[in-house]
């Protein structure tokens, strides 16, 4: 196999750092292990962010997600770890990571974690008549 799971997130320069814009990334194939039973957990991970100087390279993000496949972790911990790792790599103006975990024992779990740069305010939305 030519690629392997990796915790290393690669970045590239934001081509338009003077503008606030949102990047939305979604993967419906996130897997990890239940820390209690060792059984697989499945989730959709959604990332919405306003980049500053860096953007995440998608192949490295895919390999990063793959690195969780054999790790156990509670949904809350994993969602916050993903946010912390991405913030450390990118230092975005704003980032929201949403973990939408499939049913486990009849219970669905959605975890939302956010980061905002100090003093950053979102632009006011334009309302058209």
From TrEMBL:
InterPro entries: GTP-CH-I_C/QueF, NADPH_dep_7-cyano-7-deazaG_red, QueF, QueF_type1. It is found in: Cytoplasm. Keywords: Cytoplasm, NADP, Oxidoreductase, Queuosine biosynthesis. GO terms for biological process: tRNA queuosine(34) biosynthetic process. Its EC number is 1.7.1.13. It is an enzyme of class 1 (oxidoreductase). Pathway: tRNA modification; tRNA-queuosine biosynthesis. The active site is at residues 34, 41. Its main location: cytoplasm. It holds the Pfam family QueF. GO terms for cellular component: cytoplasm. It catalyses: 7-aminomethyl-7-carbaguanine + 2 NADP(+) = 7-cyano-7-carbaguanine + 2 NADPH + 3 H(+). The keyword Oxidoreductase applies. Substrate binds at residues 56-58, 75-76. Catalyzes the NADPH-dependent reduction of 7-cyano-7-deazaguanine (preQ0) to 7-aminomethyl-7-deazaguanine (preQ1). Belongs to the GTP cyclohydrolase I family. QueF type 1 subfamily. This is NADPH-dependent 7-cyano-7-deazaguanine reductase. It comes from Methylophaga frappieri (strain ATCC BAA-2434 / DSM 25690 / JAM7).
């Amino acid at each position: 196999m030519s690629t392997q799971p990796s915790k290393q997130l690669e970045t590239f320069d934001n081509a338009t750092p003077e503008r606030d814009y949102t990047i939305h990334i979604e993967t419906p194939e996130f897997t990890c292990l239940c820390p209690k039973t060792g059984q697989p957990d499945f989730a959709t991970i959604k990332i919405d962010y306003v980049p500053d100087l860096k953007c995440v390279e998608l192949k490295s993000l895919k390999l990063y997600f793959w690195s969780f496949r054999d790790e156990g972790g509670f949904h809350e911990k994993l969602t916050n770890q993903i946010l912390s790792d991405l913030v450390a790599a990118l230092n975005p103006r704003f980032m929201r990571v949403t973990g939408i975990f499939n049913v486990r024992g009849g219970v669905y779990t959605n975890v939302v974690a956010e980061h905002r740069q100090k003093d950053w305010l979102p632009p006011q939305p334009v309302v058209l008549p």
